[in-house]
TrEMBL record:
Xref: CDD domains: Pep_deformylase
Species name: Ileibacterium valens
Keywords: Hydrolase, Iron, Metal-binding, Protein biosynthesis
One matching Pfam family: Pep_deformylase
NCBIfam families the UniProt entry points to: pept_deformyl
Positions bound to Fe cation: C111, H155, H159
MF annotations from Gene Ontology: metal ion binding; peptide deformylase activity
EC numbers: 3.5.1.88
Record-given protein name: Peptide deformylase
GO terms under biological process: translation
Matches recorded under PANTHER family: PEPTIDE DEFORMYLASE, PEPTIDE DEFORMYLASE 2
Homology family: Belongs to the polypeptide deformylase family.
Note on how the cofactor is bound: Binds 1 Fe(2+) ion.
């Protein structure tokens, strides 16, 4: 399966709201190949030249359900600085702990499956721990994430329950900041 903007489903497709199912570990050849291609999409989408040639929209994460496949698999590639990249290709990711302190991105969130911008803050836990199988290291991992990487992981894990980022936006006051929250630049 080739992954590009033609194969990503949008929020008007009812499949995006499906709950995803666990996958078997070790991964089947088919699941491993799909998860590898998801990771490749995200990594390549961040290179302008490759993205243009392959019809990729820039992204920091993708979930299998965004391809219409209801399996608990996500890929994230978040550049931290020149020398560090926060990247995982996870099967069956699960949040095992989260902070009470919330965080949101000042610019809001976006999504490959949401073509129209939805205005407002999306508050999520500022710190989380996630457990899952990482295809890149071929092992069970426990990931500690804070700030932007934590937001990206939660965004992708939400997809596995059929949730989209704009479900978290306060409809009455989209830019209201709760007492226990920070807004990240």
């Amino acid at each position: 399966m080739e992954i590009n903007m033609e194969t990503v489903i949008h929020d008007d497709d009812p499949r995006i709201r499906q709950h995803s199912a666990d996958v078997n570990i070790p991964l089947s050849k088919e699941d491993a190949e799909l998860l590898f291609k998801m990771h490749q999409y995200v990594a390549e989408s961040q290179d302008e030249q490759i993205a243009e040639v392959k019809n990729l929209q820039p992204a920091v994460g993708i979930a299998a359900i965004q391809l219409g496949i209801p399996k608990k698999m996500i890929a994230v590639v978040v550049p931290i600085d020149e020398d560090h990249i926060f990247e995982f290709a996870l099967a069956n990711p699960k949040i095992i702990s989260r902070s009470r302190e919330l965080a949101a991105l000042q610019t809001g969130e976006g999504c490959l499956s949401v073509p129209e911008t939805k205005e407002g803050y999306v508050f999520r836990s500022n710190r989380i721990k996630v457990r899952g199988y990482d295809l890149l290291t071929d092992q069970e991992v426990t990931i500690k994430a804070e700030g932007y990487p934590a937001i990206v992981l939660q965004h992708e894990i939400d997809h596995l329950s059929g949730k989209l980022y704009y479900d978290h936006i306060n409809q009455k006051n989209p830019y209201q900041i709760p007492d226990n929250a920070v807004v990240l630049e």
